[in-house]
Amino acid sequence: MNRPFFQSSAFTVFFVLLAGFFVASCSRQSDTIRNGQGERKPNVVFILVDDLGKEWVSAYGADNVVTPNIDALAATGMKFSNAYVMPQCTPTRLSFMTGQYPYRHGWVNHWDVPRWGGGCSYDWKRNPS
Question: Is the whole model's pTM more than 0.85, yes or no?
Answer without folding.
Answer: no
